[in-house]
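YM 10:42: Vacuolar protein sorting-associated protein 41 homolog sequence, as discussed on the call
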Amino acid sequence: QLLLYERGWMNRWKPSVLHEGEGNIRNVKWRGHLIAWANNMGVKILDTISKQRITNVPRDDISLRPDMYPCSLCWKDNLTLIIGWGNSVKICSVKERHASEMRDLPNRYVEIVFQFDTEFYISGLAPLCDQLVILSYVKEISEKTEVECCARPRLDIVQPLPESCEEISSDALTVRGFQENECRDYHLEYSEGESLFYIISPRDVVVAKERDQDDHIDWLLEKKKYEEALMAAEISQKTIKKHKILDIGLAYINHLVEKGEYDLAARKCQKILGKNTELWEFEVYKFKEIGQLKAISRYLPRRDPVLKPLIYEMVLHEFLESDYEGFATLIKEWPGDLYNNTIIVQAVVDHLKKDPQNRTLLRTLAELYTYDQRYGRALEIYLTLRHKDVFQLIHKHNLFSSIRDKIVLLMDFDSEKAVEMLLDNEDKISIDRVVEELENRPELQHVYLHKLFKRDHHKGQRYHEKQISLYAEYDRPNLLPFLRDSTHCPLEKALEICQQRNFVEETVYLLSRMGNSRSALKMIMEELQDVDKAIEFAKEQDDGELWEDLILYSIDKPPFITGLLNNIGTHVDPILLIHRIKEGMEIPNLRDSLVKILQDYNLQILLREGCKKILVADSLSLLKKMHRTQMKGVLVDEENICESCLSPILPSDASKSFNVVVFHCRHMFHKECLPVSNTVSLVQFCNICSAKHRGPGSAILEMKK
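YM 10:58: structure's back
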């Protein structure tokens, strides 16, 4: 029988039979308002509120004796029951029945949501989050006797699936006398709040609990998985009790060093050692002992924290003895205040005595001098090496006073950058000083003065005469633009130089600029033999005498006549040229030239006619506009005054007669205030506008009353 005792009247216990007549009651579990029990027939669930039995779950394998393989029950929550019987597991969910389905049925029903079989017989069950803990009774065949015997019980964690399960972990338990135990001799109980599980056997009680992060880290360290252990400790640093992140990190570094992974060990130091200067210095000495200072050099802290200067000097000396490039890299990357600069400079100087031309050491020494604010020495080395940072150094530290006597070296190194720098800092190094320094290097002097002229045509005007010779010698293509743009170069000197060197184009320009256009034209015709250039020159000068000279020179040269015929039409009457052509002279492309002259003439006629039409149309439009304007009325009210007597234009008494004259310019007068005109014309004009030459402003309206 399954009896329920309830406290009744007078605080007495009153029993009631919930179930009987189906054999022994093997297991009972009560949670909330639901009671589950198992007997030989199956598992029943009763609702204590309605006093109704809501389900019967029959056992699957009736061949197993229920006393030898008892049913295991446990409630996962108030509505979920887990049943284990034989090798079968069922997870049942108690649900509310819909009102329309009730009729004579209980108001709740049970649905089996998961069902699967296991390899072994079940001795106990317990929930673990969304997984299950199963205590299994195991039988195996002995290898010696080949007889089935009892093995150690297993504690499995499985993940239920709709029709199967996935094994998460499995542990075989060593309990005393397991060889003699049966399935019914084992029980599994659990303490829900503490996540403790009790495995009960006839001779032992084994307590199982979930592993915490300390256990996990112990296992990782045992397997030498230091990186994973460090990561696990960082994630769970608030919950771990046995381990410290720093201890795990140091063990990890030692492990990497033992394996020979020096670079990785050095890189991990940054993260593990953090700002602990003592540990940093200890690790640096350890790396020195194994000859791996280079490995840790890249990862040494440079700011917050800063180690002792001796540490950094020790690393630099190591590189200086074996790796100049690595040494130079560290000097460039490390701030100069990490180490004693004087000691390192002396060490570099000592090495340069053995190898004085070593560019890497010289460059590094220059950087050290810069850190030490000995800019003059650094500049000398940079100039010797022709190093690109020399200009940056000059600008950054304002070393213009130090380069006054090194301008030639700078120009030889990079004339473009040097000139830009010198021109940008004229206040620190004057133009005169630069020109003086470059006196023996005229080609560099020309580069400087040319850039100066391009930037400002007037700043270097005292050197324009010198520049004529420099352009003629080193840069003839820019000579003519210079002569055109300069207003300070002496023309006679320029003409003399150009004539000496037979520079025809430049000579022509100078002659024309000096007013000797005829000589310039003659040079174009005789020296250049270029009729197009001669015509272009004549057009620029726009001088009738030049056109006459050009025609006279060309009259016996048929190709020149063709060029003139093609281009003269818009500047000189072509008839003047055509009349002078000798009878019988053969002129190439004469017909085409004459056709072009006629076409140009027709084009001029068309343009004139078009302009005339536009002018007439505009005049008519403006005349109509003026007429419309003059036809409009003009408002005259009390605010208007007579421009002569300055009294109101309208009388205060409207009944009196008055006579007013209003001009188109909006000036108004009393009739009697206007002066009498001496002219015979009947048209009157505004005295004010006529006096100011703004137009006559003829009268448009005479008002009388």
